[in-house]
Amino acid sequence: MTQSFEGAMLERLKLLDHTSESIISMSEFMRQHKDDAARVVGMWNDALFSTAYHQHLPLIYVANDVLQNSKQETNAFVVEFAKVLPSAFRYAYTFAQSDNIRQKLIKVLNVFVERHVYSAHWIQELRDDLLAGPQQKLQNELKQSLLNTDTSADLLSVQQALAFLKDDVRACELAEQRYHSANDIMEKERLLTALQEALESEAKSRAAFLRTSYNYLGRQEHIFAHLLSQLAAWNDRHAQLGQLKANLV
Q: Which of 34, 50, 76, 144 suits a disulfide with 207, CB 3.0-4.6 Å?
């Protein structure tokens, strides 16, 4: 994938809106690069985690259009989107600004089943994850005790992402300083290109940091919910024993 393509896709992602024309155009552009589906989907995922909340639904619609219109020709997008859709839907659903948007997200999942994009079982698990309350989530996701879950690898990913982000921020600052201190026009043009590349790299690092942080915090939230559930169960058991003791007396 060339830098010119990456730049073009980033620009299209920035201009994406809720209109069908914009969504279809974005989808067609992505499908033109099916041979590099992994990178294309990665950029889509980075955009979802770094953009404003009102842009989440158009991006989900883009994914839906890409999947439906590419599956007859290639399975690459189906495979790559399967890796990121659970966290993407969870993030979009969590920060949806209204129940109407949440309903539209669920509707997209239903379409995946109706159009045979993904299996009904896989979509049902994802849908249950979005709709279930805390206790049901524990039953669905935490069948194995999360008290024994090692999250050190997740934390390391966050720390590494933060380190890359800090490096890219420093690189941007240095590139900007060099640009402003240059006097030669040709040199300024070269440094402006370098500054633009540094800014694009910083944007990717920021998206990666947000994504890894969200995943890590999500794991921590599940563990905390499990602890609260255990505590509630212990409190109930303690109350039952207290009542039994009172009855015996």
A: 50
| Token pair 């966290």 in the structure block, residue | 87
Q: Which parts of 95-143 fold into alpha helices (H)? A: 99-114, 120-131, 134-141
The pTM for the full model equals 0.57
Across the range 136-155, mean pLDDT stands at: 50
Q: Give the chain's count of helices (H) and strands (E).
A: 10, 0
**Cα angle: 93, vertex 59, 154; to 5 degrees:** 60
Q: How far is residue 92 CA from its own chain's centroid?
A: 8
CB neighbourhood size of 22 (10 A): 16
Q: Which residue has the tokens 């989107």?
A: 81
Q: In angstroms, what is the C-alpha Rg of the chain?
A: 23
DSSP symbol at 249: -
Among residues 77, 120, 87, 127, which one has the least CA distance to residue 105? 127
Helix intervals (H) in 132-184: 134-141, 152-181
Contacts 24+ apart (CB under 8 A), 141-144: 141/222, 142/222, 142/226
pLDDT digits (tens, 9 = 90+) for 161-193: 777 777 778 887 887 888 788 888 888 888 888
- Please state, in angstroms and rounded to a whole number, the distance separating the CA atoms of residues 229 and 237: 12
Mean pLDDT value across the chain: 79
Q: Angle at CA 82, nearest 5°, toward 33 and 44?
A: 45
Tokens for 49, please give them.
Answer: 């985690």
